[in-house]
Each structure stands twice: as C-alpha cells, then as structure tokens.
C-alpha cells in the first residue's frame, strides 16, 4: 500500500527561517525545485522561483527591508485600502505589520491543499490600528505553491464586530 496524495504532508515542504532583522520567513518548495518565500513582515511573498531557480518577482534595489516600513517588492497585501484616502497610511497598514502563522485555520476546500506546499497566515488589528480604522477583522492569507510551480494566494477577511467594513 503506497502513500496517496491524500496523505501529502505539506509541512515537510516548509522551511522556517529568519531574515537579517530576526523576522520569520517561510520558504515553500515543490518536488520540482520551485520555491516561494513569504515574510511575516506584511504577509508578503518576496520571492517566487521556478524550477530552474529563476526569480519571477521584482524587488527594488531601493527597498527598505525593515519593519515597520513596507517592503517595496514582491506581492504586497494592500488592506484595508489601496491608495491613500483619508488618514489611513498609503495602501493600508497590513503590509507593514508582523503577521502570525496560523496552525489550524478555518477549513478551505480540500482542493486548495491537495499536493501543495502552503502556509496559513493571520493578521488581527492591534489597538493602534483600531484608532485609525475602527473595525474588528481577521485577515487570513493562504500562500500555496503547487506541484506545477504555480503560486496561489487566497485571502479571507472576516468582519468580527458586525459593523460594515
Ligand atoms: O511607495 P509605496 O507606498 O510603497 O507605494 C507603492 C506605489 O504605489 C502606487 O499606487 C503609487 O502609484 C506609486 O507611486 C507607489 O510608489
């Protein structure tokens, strides 16, 4: 009896590491050698490489890679706004926060996990965030690397205080 895809252990394909500022990063790998690197700073995918090791994402040489400054490169999470309306910071605060890894997130469709290397991240507002944007929320982000090297990101935002966002 061989192992089927149903018992694929996605954790075996994850590497946890830290950047030069001590902020955690997660590296996803697939069996063909593709990879994606996700920083908990901003929940930002900062590298996506194909199976030939070629980088597919741009990062500016002028990027400041130190929280709480947003990183200029990779895939930014712009929440709760894109742009610079009102008193919120440009493109929202999510990209400058330290996200956490969620071990047991609310379920997604099984197809979203099967055969993929993935990580689930979570952002909840801190007191200071509620002062400039008074909404309780949970922002869940799944970043997956598929066996064909595709990168998939699923955002789920839950309103937890019943007021319209
Ligand atoms: O410079 P930031 O805040 O990282 O924003 C990234 C870019 O966001 C875009 O929306 C702006 O048009 C650019 O001018 C800006 O450089």
UniProtKB/TrEMBL annotation:
One of its GO terms (molecular function) is glucose-6-phosphate 1-epimerase activity. It holds the Pfam family Aldose_epim. This is Glucose-6-phosphate 1-epimerase. GO terms for cellular component: cytoplasm. It comes from the Eukaryota. The lineage of its organism: Eukaryota, Viridiplantae, Streptophyta, Embryophyta, Tracheophyta. InterPro entries: Aldose_1/G6P_1-epimerase, Gal_mutarotase_sf_dom, GH-type_carb-bd. GO terms for biological process: carbohydrate metabolic process.
């Amino acid at each position: 009896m061989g192992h089927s895809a149903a018992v694929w252990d996605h954790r075996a394909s994850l590497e946890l590491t830290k950047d030069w500022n001590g902020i955690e990063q997660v590296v996803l790998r697939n069996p063909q050698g593709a990879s994606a690197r996700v920083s908990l700073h901003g929940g930002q995918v900062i590298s996506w490489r194909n199976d030939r090791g070629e980088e597919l994402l741009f990062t500016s040489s002028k990027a400041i890679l130190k929280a709480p400054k947003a990183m200029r490169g990779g895939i930014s999470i712009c929440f709760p706004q894109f742009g610079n309306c009102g008193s919120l910071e440009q493109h929202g605060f999510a990209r400058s926060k330290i996200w956490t890894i969620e071990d047991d997130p609310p379920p997604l469709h099984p197809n979203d996990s099967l055969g993929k290397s993935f990580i689930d991240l979570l952002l909840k507002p801190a007191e200071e965030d509620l002062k400039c944007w008074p909404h309780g929320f949970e922002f869940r982000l799944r970043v997956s690397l598929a066996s064909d090297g595709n990168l998939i990101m699923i955002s789920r935002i839950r309103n937890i205080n019943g007021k319209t966002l």
